Amino acid sequence: MHGPDSNKNHELFYSSEIENSLVFSEDSLKIRQLSESAGYGIRVIDKKRVGFSYCTRESEIKETLKHAASLARFSPKSN
Fold first, then answer.
1. What is the β-pairing status of strands 8-25 and 28-46?
2. CA neighbours within 13 Å on the CB side: how many for 37?
3. pLDDT along the chain (79 residues), means of 10
4. What are the angstrom distances between the C-alpha of 27 and each of 8, 21, 31, 33?
């Protein structure tokens, strides 16, 4: 998506994963673990420079976008 500055592009990627692990021993369930993870990856392209940042809460997206934009100025220009 395009920001207010026509030289800046922003992309947001959301990923969510649920993992269920079971361990059996001698035909009975010994360990059961359930874990969940989710997060937002943000890429900013500013004047052919790329910055990335990641957060785990939707409420953090705005600040994460600013962080990715600030990192872009340190990356080499892409073609």
1. antiparallel
2. 4
3. 62 96 89 94 94 96 96 88
4. 58, 16, 12, 18
Which residue, among 76, 68, 27, has the nearest Cα to 48 in the 3D structure? 76
- Supply the pLDDT for residue 79: 74
**What are the DSSP calls for 12-62, one per residue?**
EEEEEEEEEEEEEETTEEEEEEEEEEEEEEEEEEETTEEEEEEESSGGGHH
Spatial CB neighbours of 47, under 8 Å, sequence gap ≥ 6: 7, 77
* Residue labelled with tokens 């957060």: 55
Question: Within 13 Å, how many C-alpha atoms sit on residue 59's CB side?
Answer: 0
